[in-house]
Design a protein that fits this description.
The structure holds two protein chains of two kinds. Chain A is of the alpha/beta class. Chain A is globular and about 55 Å long. Chain A has a five-stranded parallel β-sheet with strand order 2-1-3-4-5, sandwiched between helices. Chain A has two domains: 123 residues, Response regulator (Rossmann fold, 3-Layer(aba) Sandwich); 97 residues, Orthogonal Bundle (Arc Repressor Mutant, subunit A), CATH 1.10.10.10. In chain A, strand 6 and strand 7 form a beta hairpin. Among the domains of chain B are: 170 residues, 2-Layer Sandwich (Beta-Lactamase); 193 residues, Immunoglobulin-like, CATH 2.60.40.1190; 153 residues, Histidine kinase-like ATPase, C-terminal domain (Heat Shock Protein 90, 2-Layer Sandwich), CATH 3.30.565. Chain B is 39% helix and 24% strand. Chain B is built from 16 helices and 27 strands. In chain B, the strands form five sheets. In chain B, strands 1, 6, 7, 9, 10, 13, 14 and 15 form an eight-stranded mixed β-sheet that branches. In chain B, a hairpin with a 6-residue loop joins strand 9 and strand 10. The N terminus of chain B is likely disordered. The chains are: A alpha/beta, B alpha+beta.
Chain lengths: 232, 738
């Protein structure tokens, strides 16, 4: 079945470039320049994935509004923010209102399509039973590689794609130090060191919501991070 | 920036400055002119008062003289009409100050030696013997006390012959002959002749009724006295009631050398044998004295002299004659007021500065028989005159005025009035004391007020200067707290205005600075969209089948755009870090964990470098963000590695005074001196060394700026300093313990 992707972006050149790439990869692409036209079309039928910019023409926070509106309609629709705003505040608020990922515009197209593909395959995987082979269990941690979901102490940890890839990269080789460059590579992003730091912080926070004593992700100062787990 | 530091240096060099406070103090020293004016004024006042006093005592003298004018009878019996007076013959009865004991001793006569007159060869009345033959001479003094005229005669005689017990004659022995006119002008003769030493025996040798000489001497009792034999001869001391005598008198000593014989020599003041040959006696006139006494309430010393300078009357004491003011200046020390208190404390100072008039001054002794002085001469020749003079001990100034007394057209005497200027001086001193005390208070208050004012102004200006200096720190950053406090200056004056306008300027600068600080971040944000367009376009292009030739160009364009992207990321890194730090919660962590881990990491990252570090298992707990501390170390180590000329790094840590300090040293090129502090500013880079390998990372001078931001987040400091032998740079990071 042909996947339909909607791009809401006010910059025509970027919008068309993304659309072209995605089209060549076999997706059906709808493009919108502002929130009104997007809403109109979404009201008729929802796409399979939405890529949003935050600033839309005159609306400074138009993307956020649209995201909230879409989340009200569908809780499962994958939404990716693709924006030039790279500050922490926007990232946090974007993810809080239900986006599946928050990407900056300096992400390369292959990285972007990798994410899109990952999101679709996760959706697919949710529909099917998980084969045992794609499950990774480490004590209280269970990683479902297929569905891209992580369970800690039998509770689901709600992670973005980027975060999932990071945890997966760390937990795949417990006790091994992953430096920031490796983590970036594994999670298909290219950002600076402090962004990685804040990603890790956010991941820890999410685990802490389930388990106050969570301390499996250890910072190895000067080198990177390491998954530490006592084999129980 | 440079000029600011220069200014500070200059300020430090000039240790002494002619500041506002000094200037105002100097100006306030003009206040000292006030006491000077006051002093001058008081002096003028004193001059004026002296002039007034002079006029007053001339007035007193005139008044007294007026009451004595044209009263010849006052002077009649005073022998004042004599054309001239002869000493010894014309006697003067001194006013005695104490009662005389009639005992023949001269010790109760004050200044007998000076006041007595010597009678010798020249005063012989009979045979003119030569000095060698004359066996007899004497000194005599006349004095007046109460109602008596006292005589003291000290006779030097080789042989004293007393009247024989059985002798009828009273003149065949040593005796005193005395003659005077009584009140009615009748001539009286007496002989004082003793049979032995002791109470005097006096005889009248003429009758009162007629001029005939009595055949028989009559004993009289109103002449009383003592005959005392002495080693040289004998003393005769006697008195006569003033009511018995008039103004003409003579006495003579008859010296007898063999018993019952005639006198060998007669020495006397004048010939007592006839009324015509009598000398005069001047006794201070009780009548004039009465008039003068009436004047004595003026508290002046008053003399009345005759034309022969002899004192006719005298009243008052110069030591009490200090002018009219003395009584008025009663001390008011009993009051407990502030003024009295100051007065008491300043008294010693005043006593030292001002010469207090003293009442125990010593003036020259007057020869009352012969008062002298220019003013007296002038008065006796008809011109009133006054005179200022110092007392002999120079302790007081005496002003004296003389005024002539006229009888007919002739000057018959003069009134002399004397006063000291002590009264005026007391008044002057009192005025000066009061003036000085008040002026001292005024000046003290004035100078204090000036000083306070000057201090306040200069303090405010200094405060403003300090604020202005601190408002922009050495990194060119604006301290907003200071700018705010300057703004809040409420003073409604020029300094307040200055403060406010300075604050406005700083605020504008701050806004501009803020604009600059956000510049790179905003620039990178604005550039991101066009770069995204270029990059996505290139990526799209590369996905299509292209001729081999053009794929090379696409690769180049892509590497270019990646570099551009890197630059933008780096540019906004500092801003992002600042935002992130704002949201970071501080946690407690062991700094050695971070340090040990990081160094281990660097040893892996830079395998060619020899990083000297002693791993410590100490525990030093800091509060902050360990990830950021690691980032800080990353930046510093990266710099140290890049600037190293050998392959050695030294990392040491120490804990001192609740501050944890990490020193990171390399051996390499030194920092230029001016760069030591600026190194940690935004967009400051001193990379001049040519990069040998192709350097892909842009150098925006943000690395150490980020290090500084992290340090500041931990309330720490980061300092770079050069070290020598071997040359290199040490970067010290100090972080305070919580």
């Amino acid at each position: 079945m042909l996947k339909r992707i909607a791009i809401v972006e006010d910059e025509a050149a970027i919008r068309e470039n993304y659309a072209d790439v995605l089209r060549t990869q076999g997706y059906q692409v709808q493009t919108f320049a502002n929130r009104e036209s997007a809403c109109e079309a979404f009201a008729l039928s929802l796409p399979h994935l939405v890529i949003l910019d935050i600033g839309l023409e005159q609306e400074y926070d138009g993307g956020f509004t649209l995201c909230q509106w879409l989340r009200n309609i569908s809780t499962t629709l994958p939404i990716i923010f693709l924006t030039a705003r790279d500050n922490d505040v926007d990232t946090v608020s974007g993810l809080r209102i239900g986006a599946d990922d928050y990407l900056t515009k300096d992400i390369s197209l292959p990285h972007l399509s990798a994410r899109i593909a990952a999101l679709f395959s996760r959706q697919e995987a949710l529909k099917q039973p998980t084969p045992e082979s794609s499950l990774l269990t480490l004590g209280p941690l269970t990683i479902d590689n297929q569905r891209m979901s992580i369970v800690w102490q039998a509770q689901n940890v709600d992670l973005t794609i980027t975060e999932f890839w990071m945890v997966f990269a760390l937990a795949k080789h417990p006790g091994h130090v992953k430096n920031r460059q490796q983590l970036m590579k594994d999670s298909n992003i290219y950002v600076d060191d402090s962004t990685i730091t804040s990603h890790v912080k956010r991941i820890r926070k999410k685990f802490n919501q389930i388990d106050k004593d969570f301390n499996c992700i250890e910072t190895v100062y000067g080198m990177g991070y390491r998954w530490n787990q006592d084999e129980k | 920036m440079v000029w600011v530091t220069d200014g500070i240096k200059m300020k430090n060099k000039l240790h002494f400055r002619f500041g506002l406070r000094t200037k105002l103090l100097l100006l306030s020293s003009f206040l000292f002119a006030i006491p000077w004016f006051g002093y001058q004024y008081v002096w003028e006042m004193e001059k004026y008062l002296r002039f007034g006093q002079e006029q007053t005592i001339i007035g007193t003298a005139r008044a007294l003289a007026t009451s004595l004018h044209e009263r010849p009878n006052l002077f009649n019996n005073q022998a004042s009409f004599l054309p001239n007076v002869e000493k010894g013959k014309d006697l003067y009865g001194y006013q005695l100050s104490q009662a005389i004991n009639l005992d023949g001793q001269s010790n109760d006569w004050p200044n007998f030696q000076e006041k007595s007159h010597y009678y010798g060869v020249e005063n012989q009345l009979s045979a003119q013997l030569t000095v060698e033959n004359l066996s007899n001479h004497f000194s005599a003094a006349v004095g007046k006390y109460d109602k008596y005229l006292y005589f003291f005669i000290q006779v030097v005689d080789d042989t004293v012959i007393y009247r024989d017990k059985n002798a009828r004659a009273i003149n065949k022995n040593d005796h005193l002959e005395l003659a005077f006119n009584d009140i009615n002008g009748n001539f009286q003769r007496f002989i004082l002749s003793n049979q032995h030493q002791g109470w005097l025996s006096a005889y009248r040798i003429n009758s009162i009724e007629s001029n005939e000489i009595l055949k028989f001497p009559a004993v009289i009792s109103f002449i009383q006295g003592q005959w005392l034999e002495t080693e040289q001869g004998y003393n005769i001391e006697f008195r006569i009631p003033l009511t018995k005598i008039s103004d003409r008198l003579a006495f003579a000593i008859h010296d007898v050398d063999t018993p019952i014989s005639a006198a060998t020599s007669i020495i006397g003041s004048a010939d007592p044998s006839t009324a015509e040959t009598l000398g005069t006696i001047l006794v201070p006139s009780p009548e004039i004295e009465r008039i003068v006494k009436g004047m004595s309430y003026t508290q002046s010393r008053i003399w009345v002299v005759d034309q022969h300078h002899r004192v006719l009357a005298k009243s008052g004491d110069i030591k009490k004659a200090s002018g009219l003011w003395q009584k008025n200046i009663s001390k008011s020390d009993n009051s407990d007021s502030w003024y009295a208190w100051t007065q008491r404390h300043l008294q010693p100072v005043f006593q030292y500065l001002l010469n207090k008039p003293q009442n125990d001054f010593i003036d020259r002794l007057y020869d009352t028989q012969n008062l002298t002085g220019e003013h007296i001469e002038a008065a006796l020749s008809g011109t009133p005159k006054s005179q200022w003079r110092l007392t002999t001990d120079k302790q007081a100034v005496i002003i004296s005025a003389a005024y002539p007394i006229y009888i007919g057209d002739n000057v018959n005497g003069a009134v002399i009035v004397e006063e000291t200027t002590n009264g005026i001086r007391s008044v002057r001193n009192k005025a000066l004391e009061k003036l000085f005390t008040s002026i001292l208070a005024i000046m003290l208050l004035g100078v204090l007020a000036f000083f306070f004012f000057a201090s306040r102004i200069s303090n405010r200006i200094r405060q403003l200067r300090n604020q202005a200096e601190v408002a922009i720190d050495e990194h060119g950053r604006i301290n907003n707290d200071i700018a705010q406090s300057m703004q809040s200056s409420k003073a409604n004056d020029e300094i307040g205005d200055l403060s406010r306008s300075f604050s406005t300027a700083v605020n504008r600068l701050s806004q501009y600075n803020h604009y600059l600080e956000n510049m790179s971040s905003r620039l990178s944000h604005e550039l991101r969209t066009p770069i995204a367009i270029v990059r996505t376009s290139l990526e799209n292009l590369s996905l299509q089948a292209l001729p081999d030739k053009s794929s090379a160009y696409i690769d180049r364009a892509q590497s270019g755009i990646n570099r551009l992207n890197n630059i933008l990321t780096n540019m906004s890194e500092a801003t992002r870090l600042e935002q992130m730090l704002n949201q970071t919660d501080k946690v407690s962590f062991n700094i050695f964990d971070v340090l040990n881990g990081c160094i281990q990491g660097y040893q892996q990252i830079y395998p060619s470098f020899d990083i000297e570090y002693v791993v410590s298992d100490e525990k030093v707990i800091l509060a902050g963000s360990p990830e950021h501390i690691a980032q800080l170390l990353d930046k510093v180590i990266t710099n140290a590695v890049e600037f190293s000329q050998d392959t050695k790094l030294f990392v040491t840590a120490e804990l001192k005074n609740k501050t944890f300090t990490i020193h990171i040293s390399n051996n390499g090129i030194l920092l230029p001196e001016t760069m030591e502090q600026r190194l940690f500013d935004s967009m400051v880079s001193m990379r001049e060394i040519p990069q040998t390998k192709e350097d892909k990372t842009p150098h925006l001078g943000l690395g150490l700026y980020i290090a500084r931001l992290i340090c500041e987040f931990h309330q720490g400091k980061i300092v770079a300093s050069n070290h020598h032998n071997p040359q290199g740079v040490t970067i010290s990071i100090s972080l305070p313990l919580p």
